[in-house]
Amino acid sequence: MAAAKTPGSKASKYAATGADVILPSKNLSGKAKAKRPGSEQDKGSAITNKLLTFALNDISNISTRKDVNEIIRQLIREEGLFSSAANSMVALSTGEGWRLAGYDASGTMSSEVMSLAYTIMDAFSTLHDYSKGYNDKPSINALLATLQMDVVTTGGCGAELVLDKTFGPERLVPVGYSTIEWYADGNGGRYPTQEKGDIVLNVPTVFIGEHNRNPDEAYSVSLLRPGLAHTINFNGFIEDMHRALNRTGHSRLIASIAADKIKAAATDEIKADPVKMGQLYAQVIEEVKTALAGLEPEDAVVTYDSVTYDVKDTGGSKADYSSMLTTLGNLLGASLKTPASVSGLRASGGQGLSNAETLIYLKVVQGTRPPVEEVISRALTLAVRLQGLDGYVAFEFMPINLRPEAELEAYLATKQKRVLELLSWGVINEAHAAWELGLRPQGLSAVLAGTRFYVKDASDATATDRTNSAEAASQPDTPAQSGGDDQ
Asked: How many CB atoms lie within 10 A of CB 431?
């Protein structure tokens, strides 16, 4: 296995015979290169929180905006169904845990590479130097949730491996995909930049992953983007329905003013003057309107007999909105990749339909994982190689399973038995067995592959299970036992 070259040496800049890995130079250590919120500000300046204001806007105001990523972010923050679709995907994707597979240069699973990768992941979540004050190093779980949300929101994600002064991996920081602008490198490739090219990220410690990018396009888009039009239409319909119900769907309190009684109560001077009489009528109407303006449903109305009240149904045709609401809800769920059984809009249908929708939804959620897995895998591979091991690491989320762990115990026991049998026969090694079982290889001390430790000794088997010699003679070719390991 070719050894990794020393960082910063001349050999790390030029390919040499027999070298498989050329490590980056030492000038990348010390500080993150990518821009993050607040990273461009001077020390001691406040980072303004722009999310404190609740944006209770009409849906038409959102539709007039131009920045797609800004619209999606605001809908995730403020709109219920959109927020549920995005956060459900992130929770299901990252909530099942993760595992690492380490391989040496030959492609064989290596306990040494896996152990170092797990140690590096632990270091990313652990603070070791308490002399520097507050440290905003994100934990691995927080980082994974951030990257997964970025994939759902913008169509991609990025991370930068920040190196310490000893050229070792210190932490991983997220890089927003919406801030990335690709530049051509002149050789048919590209490299990421920020701030319209002012921040060049053409460095090997920055990793970008993209979700379902078309080969004839330079950028990927959010999988929620097709749902923007249907979200606007759905919420617009809800707002129109709300206004229509307020206008015709509720009873009204009708106040009737008896003009003859008002006139009878007026003075002779006012009665003789039509102008003053009109002013009196206007004054009475305004007083009644003022009294009823702040009226609550439980309040009682006490008045003279010059004003009478009655609660009446406004009548008119009332449209049945349920069918239209169901159709728009199904269109919205399909565009947001979140079926009605998941979003809560399912008003009818059998259990079979809900099961099919849920299964398809889980496949869609699993399809959003590869960009995050790619970024973390490449970052860990570089981190392992910087520590002197020539190998590579594959980061993987655990499969999504909606069943409780107690119900899965029997299935897990069967899988464990199968894995241990393969290890016992030497079909897989210890590293592969640890990966299959979701265990860390640091605690493995014995060499078990090929030792047949899981095969029962033949001497322990009973010689025969036949009750008499006549039965044995009638079935001479029948084995005493079926031969399974459980006998």
From this structure: 23
Q: What is the dihedral of CA 123, 125, 131, 135, to 10 degrees?
A: 140
The verdict on residue 348 lying in a domain is: no
Q: Are 168 and 154 in contact (CB under 8 A)?
A: no
Instruction: Determine the Cα angle at 456 with ends 455 and 460, to 5°.
Output: 160
Helix (H/G/I), strand (E/B), else coil: 291: helix
Q: Indicate if 215 and 259 belong to the same structural domain.
A: no
Is 445 strand, coil or helix?
coil
* Same domain assignment for residues 69 and 141: yes
> In the prediction, which pLDDT does 172 show?
92
**How much is the pTM?**
0.75
Name the nearest CA neighbour of 76 among 85, 68, 67: 85
Contact 231, 81 (CB under 8 A): yes
**Does the residue 357 lie in any domain?**
no
The full length of the chain comes to 487
> How many structural domains does the chain have?
3
Write down the pLDDT at residue 151: 96
438 lies in a domain? Answer: yes
Beta 190-194 vs 181-184: how paired, if at all? Answer: antiparallel
65 and 184, same structural domain?
yes
* CB distance 183 to 194 below 8 Å: no
**What is the model's pLDDT at position 383?**
94
Q: How confident is the model at residue 401 (pLDDT cuts 50, 70, 90)?
A: confident
Q: State the Cα–Cα distance between residues 145 and 96, nearest whole angstrom.
A: 12
> How far, in Å, are 360, 362, 401 from residue 351 at the CA level?
14, 16, 18
User: Largest Cα–Cα distance of the chain, in whole Å?
Assistant: 134
Selection from 152, 336, 320 nearest residue 344 by Cα: 336
Which residues, listed in sequence order, are joined to residue 162 by a DSSP beta bridge?
171
Q: Is the dihedral of CA 40, 44, 49, 50 positive or negative?
A: negative
Instruction: Give dist(CA 487, CA 477) in Å, integer.
Output: 19
Indicate the residue among 312, 347, 380 that finishes a domain. Answer: 312
Other CB atoms within 10 Å distance of the CB of residue 162: 20
CA distance 76 to 69: 11
